[in-house]
Amino acid sequence: MSSHRxxxxxxxxxxxxxxxxxxxxxxxDPHTVTLISNYIPLEGPAAGPNxxxxxxxxxxxxxxxxxxxxxxxxxYGFRFTTTVQNPHTFLYNTGPITSLTDASFNRRQTYSVSRxxxxxxxxxxxxxxxxxxxxxxxxxxxxYPVLARQAVHALPGGRTVFAGQRAEGFYVDLxxxxxxxxxxxxxxxxxxxxxxxxxxxxxTKKLNVHSIALKVPISDLTxxxxxxxxxxxxxRQKVRVxxxxxxxxxxxxxxxxxxxxxxxxxxxxxxxxxxxxxxxDYWNTQQPVxxxxxxxxxxxxxxxxxxxxxxxxxxxxxxxxxxxxxDLQAILLTGIPAGIVSPTFTTFTGPTPADMLRLxxxxxxxxxxxxxxxxxxxxxxxxxxxxxxxxxFTIELRAIAGVTIPLVDPGFTPDGAASVVTDxxxxxxxxxxxxxxGVPYSGYDVP
Length: 447
Known about the structure:
disordered N terminus; alpha+beta
């Protein structure tokens, strides 16, 4: 099966698309950091008979920069292997799956985890780790949370890993937003609309993704500064040869050569909103250290200019602001220097502009988190890392609308709408413990 969403690239490759990246100090284990990278967007739960899975031909990676140069000093790599227990059936499972070794679990995936350090030395931490099946329904996967817990594996060095299907945690009104920037709570003010204001519609509600989640000691990632930069990528080998398949599919496809990056993601919505359409595929091939070439889209975001056109008279102060957006550059490309939000708060990694999700690992989790993160007075949330429940769409929309300009330009007063504009959504399918993203929806339960 295949799927898509506002994918990071034009030529879509759902199995390799990195759709969301999360990095946060683990709320139930605050000496550790949890890193999550999602792939295969917008999975419909009723996806049989060929249910979603990771690609055996894809190298999935999570990268950590701990010295601010836009280059990874620590990289975790994940490779998957699919095995079919019974090649004579079309069925994913031939009965209830009650354990990861159940004979009725026909199509299984295992994976290896490696760690590469700053000296480019790679150590395999584990192999043959099991993935859970997709959540099919009450007859096929009758105790799914139990199956998922069986797929949480301990790694050397106090690390923990999970790879498998999860509930989609990113919530956004895609159907409205991409209809000429329509925001349902404000559509009575839209230049091309005459409908009354109403609540947003979550386009990702009851959809799933495939997640790689890794919990590691903070000391495993940092070097000197407590601030790290995080991004994820997917790569395929350079040459792919398609052959006439034999009856048992031997040598139907051969991949060879070095791995080439085909997808990456750091900050949410960076490529979707700030990179021109014709450069999206190119952006996916680049490394964060080279992101100065995309700085114009951050300093002069197209959406900021469009807001006053789409919502006449609502953002007049933003329309008159012509300076390069130093606030967005700090949030997305360099991190926020100390003294801007508070005397001690910082996510600054240095002057090198790089699209990375920056996390200050010295800031503990918040007992009562605010989904608006730093904008909501909660410095443990986005853009200090990203927790699974952070409302990143509203946060970034308000930032683009000008609410963060006074942090770097105190003489500017934002439009009143900048602090309230939103797509009007909330979401709550999360877990209090690793891997934090909620139990995936089953096809039986979702119409």
